[in-house]
Design a protein that fits this description.
Structural class: mainly beta
Oligomer: single chain
Order of helices and strands: HEEEEEEEEEEEE
Length: 238
Amino acid sequence: MISKLLLSTALVVVGASSGFAQGFSGGELGLEYSLFDDLDTSTTSYFGSVEYEITPQIAIAADFSFFNAEDSDESPTNGTIHGIYKTAAGGSFGVFVGQDSLEDVSGTIYGAEGAYDFGLGQIQAYFGVADTDDDVNFLGAEVDYDFGSGFGFIGAVDVLNIESNSSTLTEIGGTYTIANGPVIFAKIGNVGLDIDADGITGEDDFNYVAVGASIGFGPDNGVTFSTRGAFSTSPLAF
């Protein structure tokens, strides 16, 4: 599945350099490495997105992501399509549908999202559910702010609920843009777990640090919305 997602994205990028470029508005590729000292483990996520502008107000986007955890043979993947409506005042509204996959198990996700670009940064929020045998929903918000001279601030809150279990992520960090090119970032965060399953009840939380990099391309140098999915809400989601 990963190879198919990568191939699809590559074809879109190649197409953007020809006649497709008339509507191609931007894309992004990146990776993030998270280290949990208390658990002596780490996770790595890879993500990519492309966006196509149908009209100045209407766009569609496709993104993919896959994840690796240290000492685990499981590598979850996600592919999502967004339908986007943009207003003249800097607001964007969207709906998304996609698929989270883990080994031979997969579930359809869908939800709504919104973003507001205030010039020096952007804030966005989302809510989604997963069509699985379990009751799964996820929601969150994130913000980025440009201080100037290449430096910026990022922050996020994400919540994943699976039946009576929940995971809450909070993180803050900083970014540095290298000469209008790649963006490198570092974050500190916390994942709080509230477990009530199979006779096991309890709460715990784990701190982590994360580093990563991303690069935007195309006329808009990026896309409107971040990647979505249950696995994207927490480095411990899998």
